[in-house]
Amino acid sequence: MATLEMKHYAHKVGVNVHHLEWCTKYRYKMFKQEAYKNLAEEILRETAQRHKILFRELFVMPEHIHASVEAPMSMSQSKVLQLLKGNLSHKLFRRQPKFRLRYPQGHFFSPGAYAGSVGYNTVDFVDSYVRNQVDIHQTRLPSFASGSPAPNSAE
C-alpha cells in the first residue's frame, strides 16, 4: 500500500498527486536509445527537484513519458506539465543539437497531454501502471478476453 502523507503548508493541508502522460511530436521514437532515455530521466528529475515536485514513478518509453507525481498544493496539473515538458524540451535541444534536425521549429512534444488526479484509492493502481509500462505496451489486444485492457466502467 502506498503511503500518502498530508503535506502541511501555511494555509493548506492535503496531497496533490497526478498521473501524467505526454508524447513526442508525431510520435517519433526519440527515446529509443538508452542514452537519450537516461538523459530525459536525468533532466526531468533535475527539473522536479528545482520545483519541489516528487516523482512517485517515472517511465520513459520510446515515444512517450508516463509519470506519477506529487506536486505542491499551489501547483496545478497544467503548471506541472508546462514545467516538465518545457524544461525537458529546452534542455534536450541544448544538450543534443541534432534533435533540431528532426524538429526544426523547436516543438519536441505534441501540444496535448493526459493529466489525471489521483486519490488514496487509486494511487497504488496508478503507480503500478506507470512502473509496468513495458509489460502493458507489449500486450497485444487479441490476448485480452474482453478486447480491451481498460477497466470496464459499465459494470
Strand line-up across the major sheet: 4-5-3-6
CATH H-level homologous superfamily name: Transposase IS200-like
Question: What is the level 1 CATH name?
Answer: Alpha Beta
In whole angstroms, how far apart are the ends?
25 Å
Question: What would you note in describing this structure?
Answer:
The chain is an alpha+beta fold and 155 residues long. The protein is 35% helix and 19% strand. The protein is built from 5 helices and 6 strands. It has a 4-stranded antiparallel sheet with strand order 4-5-3-6, sandwiched between helices. Helix 1 (34-50) crosses helix 2. The longest helix has 19 residues, at 77-95. The protein starts with 6 loop residues before the first strand and ends in a 17-residue tail after the last helix.
